[in-house]
């Protein structure tokens, strides 16, 4: 309560309320995909393991938390890729590894011809200007002892991009861009509401004019009526400055609105990735389908009653000791023998659609024999099949190929 | 006939050094057994404060509570503290938002639930244990006999919330208040918990108040919905009615500012301008007027000078709205209409 009392009220009775037209002009439809945009950041086979040590004096390493275990994706210039999944699936860790807040265990992060994953700290510093981050919690990500002006100016100071006497001017410009009163640069974070604080965090991320922003749950701490304001702001900024967003969130509806391309993660792996239509209307992985069916939806509930839910039983297994084969098999309604023996490859099944499942398809219409058996060189139960010739190019590649596995013809096809 | 739970003109005011915070200011609603009421609002709109008043949780604090809360004929604001204790957890139970902070970390989950049972029933530890194990099994905790002795940190988020639900149901309450029961949970777990809550409600014919900011949850769970803004009800009526034909610009704004997973992708996300008001100095007149884009459609300066009454709108007696707009169709004049097709709603 004390919080909101000190809040800088922008909408006091004295100020004019925007008209309907003004509000509508700020509102955006869902972002659209530009299929020809070149990739600005390419992540290949990224792994992030955290060692688990035993207690006692000699802290022996006893295992690894496999938080991110080999993900590949390409972030198009000026576009957005959404990373969704439940808590603990590794989506935030992936974001932090990509911004090099963590040192990745393996894999590469290619940006402008350099590999961010292995680059030295000295070489990394100038590149940090290009890859910035927006954090989830606008309360803990701003230093309460610093004024807003010095928070937003910090990146400018560290990277020495503007002369000292022009820093204030630049800060005020930035505050204006994100819709805050530039006169408020001398105030402290506690004087602002949650939505306004998130705008400060966004101004800080914009200060260095980055090409890539990793937004880790940028709106989930905000009130519903404020979320739309921030999402619209991000869409404006993306268009104006041509920024590529890696948008990490658990809210499937927000991701659907902001990102034309979405990757679904489960226990450190991408289980399905594709454009909006492939994921939301034509998901082929049982986990994606279960996730989507669980989202409460106003329209659906009011008009057609409740949808049939795909109930998942049990909890997400521990990432220290993930299940063998497919990591989702312990909760999967259609798991079979092969699922515990072999990990399904992330197979491209459409122009912009990849799925990691032995039985890809709408639940109920899914194939009864594992489609991947031939590619892996095994029989339907997952035992080695001497007659089959395993396909050699199953290594996960970021981006999409021109040819893909046609589910109807059960062979490699193309458009 | 009076409803099972009737709240009339409830006010919860907190005196502070800066003035009186009117967290709830004149709230009225009713709820029958076996029915669910959804209370929706932003943080600070007074939804949690109002429901904790039903449980008498403001007793012994500086809060000033007035009005009346009648549960099955008993006025909960008039009874003594002792009577309140007898009722709390037995007839009225609460499910809290964050099960990790609502469960005691030093006691095993089973013992905490058993304590809730033994407070109200004179039974031996052994009998209580049997009852708790049954309940744990009922809410879907595997191996309930072994899980009885586990501690909260050994449970996952969804399991803890199940344990909380088991605790609230252990005395067969007739009213359950669920305060953001699934906000801390992932969607797949949320779906499990909501289904469980609905099954149990049908089985025990419980009245449920579900407090949330998620309109999707309300649409799926509730029969009636009460939209709160700055401590007041601004719209109240059957869910199918209010969410398809909102007559108050705030409700309309909430509906058009949240995306949903099935909407047309060309649908725009229209934000509500401004910020929620301070409860210390609420704006004069309609509390929503500083953010309302339809304010200029009301003649004179009525929105800024006079608080509208909560009265039936144009769509029937049980759909109440607090707005000066005489013709709510004015809200829909804009290009953006609420995201549902009224024709589809009729089919339901």
Automatic annotation (TrEMBL), chain B:
Recorded topology in the membrane: Peripheral membrane protein
Alphabetized UniProt keyword annotations: ATP-binding, Cell membrane, Membrane, Nucleotide-binding, Transport
Pfam families per the UniProt record, alphabetical: ABC_tran, oligo_HPY
Record has Transcription regulation as a keyword: no
Domain ABC transporter: 5-255
SUPFAM superfamilies assigned: P-loop containing nucleoside triphosphate hydrolases (SSF52540)
One term of GO molecular function: ATP binding
Classification via InterPro entries: AAA+_ATPase, ABC_Ni/Peptide_Import, ABC_transporter-like_ATP-bd, ABC_transporter-like_CS, Oligopep_ABC_C, P-loop_NTPase
Keyword presence, Cell wall biogenesis/degradation: no
Main location: membrane
PANTHER family: DIPEPTIDE TRANSPORT ATP-BINDING PROTEIN DPPD, OLIGOPEPTIDE TRANSPORT ATP-BINDING PROTEIN APPD
Family membership noted in the UniProt record: Belongs to the ABC transporter superfamily.
Name of the featured protein: ABC transporter ATP-binding protein
Origin species: Nocardioides vastitatis
Phylogenetic classification of the source organism: Bacteria, Bacillati, Actinomycetota, Actinomycetes, Propionibacteriales
């Amino acid at each position: 309560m004390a919080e909101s009392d000190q809040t800088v009220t922008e909408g006091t009775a004295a100020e004019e309320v925007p008209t309907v037209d003004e509000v509508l002009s700020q509102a955006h439809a869902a972002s659209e995909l530009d299929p020809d945009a070149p990739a600005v950041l390419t992540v290949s086979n990224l792994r992030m393991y955290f060692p688990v040590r035993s207690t006692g004096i000699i802290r022996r390493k006893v295992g690894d938390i496999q938080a991110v275990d080999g993900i590949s994706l390409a972030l198009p210039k000026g576009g957005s890729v959404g990373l969704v999944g439940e808590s603990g699936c590794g989506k935030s860790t992936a974001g932090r590894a990509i911004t090099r807040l963590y040192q990745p265990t393996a894999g590469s992060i290619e940006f402008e011809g350099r590999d961010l994953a292995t680059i030295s700290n000295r070489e990394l510093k100038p590149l940090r200007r290009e890859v910035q981050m927006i954090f989830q919690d606008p309360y803990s990500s701003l230093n309460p002892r610093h004024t807003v002006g010095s928070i937003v100016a910090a990146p400018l100071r560290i990277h020495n991009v503007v002369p000292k006497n022009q820093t204030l001017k630049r800060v005020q410009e930035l505050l204006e861009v994100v819709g805050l009163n530039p006169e408020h640069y001398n105030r402290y974070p506690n004087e602002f509401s949650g939505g306004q604080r998130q705008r400060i965090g966004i101004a800080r991320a914009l200060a260095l004019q980055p090409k890539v922003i990793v937004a880790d749950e940028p709106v989930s701490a905000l009130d519903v009526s404020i979320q739309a304001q921030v999402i619209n702001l991000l869409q404006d900024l993306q268009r104006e400055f041509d920024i590529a967003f890696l948008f990490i969130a658990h809210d499937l509806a927000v991701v659907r609105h902001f990102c034309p391309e979405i990757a679904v993660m489960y226990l450190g792996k991408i289980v399905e990735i594709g454009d909006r239509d492939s994921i939301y209307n034509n998901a082929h992985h049982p986990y994606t389908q279960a996730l989507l069916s669980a989202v409460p939806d106003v329209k659906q509930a009011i008009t057609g009653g409740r949808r049939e839910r795909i109930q998942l039983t049990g909890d997400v297994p521990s990432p220290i000791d993930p299940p063998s084969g497919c990591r989702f098999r312990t909760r999967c309604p259609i798991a079979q023998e092969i699922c515990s023996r072999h990990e399904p490859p992330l197979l491209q099944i459409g122009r912009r659609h990849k799925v990691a499942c032995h039985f890809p398809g709408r639940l109920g219409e899914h194939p009864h024999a594992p489609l991947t058996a031939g590619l892996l060189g095994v029989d339907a139960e997952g035992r080695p099949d001497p007659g089959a010739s395993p396909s050699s190019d199953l290594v996960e590649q970021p981006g999409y190929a021109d040819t893909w596995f046609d589910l109807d013809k059960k062979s490699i096809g193309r458009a | 006939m009076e409803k099972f739970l009737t709240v009339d003109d409830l006010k919860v005011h907190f005196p502070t050094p800066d003035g009186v915070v009117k967290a709830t200011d004149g709230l009225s609603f009713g709820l029958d057994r076996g029915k669910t009421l959804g209370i929706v609002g932003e943080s600070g709109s007074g939804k949690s404060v109002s429901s904790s008043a039903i449980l008498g949780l403001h007793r012994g604090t500086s809060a000033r509570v007035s009005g009346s809360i009648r549960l099955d004929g008993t006025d909960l604001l008039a009874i003594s503290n002792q009577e309140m204790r007898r009722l709390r957890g037995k007839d009225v139970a609460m499910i809290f938002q964050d099960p990790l902070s609502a469960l005691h970390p030093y006691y095993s989950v089973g013992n905490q639930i058993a304590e809730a049972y033994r407070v109200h029933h004179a039974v031996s530890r052994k009998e209580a244990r049997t009852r708790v194990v049954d309940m744990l099994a009922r809410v879907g905790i595997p191996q309930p006999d072994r899980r009885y002795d586990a501690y909260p940190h050994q449970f996952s988020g969804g399991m803890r919330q199940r344990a909380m639900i088991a605790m609230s149901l252990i005395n067969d309450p007739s009213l359950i208040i669920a305060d953001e029961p699934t906000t801390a949970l992932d969607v797949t777990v949320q779906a499990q918990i909501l289904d469980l809550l609905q099954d149990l409600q049908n089985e025990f014919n419980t009245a449920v108040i579900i407090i949330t900011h998620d309109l999707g949850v309300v649409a799926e769970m509730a029969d009636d919905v009460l939209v709160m803004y700055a401590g007041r009800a601004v719209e109240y009526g059957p869910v199918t009615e209010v969410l398809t034909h909102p007559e108050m610009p705030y409700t309309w704004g909430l509906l058009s500012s949240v995306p949903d997973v099935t909407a047309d992708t060309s649908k725009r996300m229209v934000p509500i301008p401004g910020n929620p008001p301070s409860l210390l100095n609420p704006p004069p007149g309609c509390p929503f007027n500083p953010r309302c884009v339809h304010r200029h459609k009301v003649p004179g300066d009525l929105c800024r000078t006079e608080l509208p009454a909560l009265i039936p709108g144009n769509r029937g007696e049980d759909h109440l709205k607090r707005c000066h707009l005489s013709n709510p169709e004015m809200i829909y004049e804009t290009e953006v209409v609420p995201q549902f097709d009224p024709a589809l709603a009729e089919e339901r």
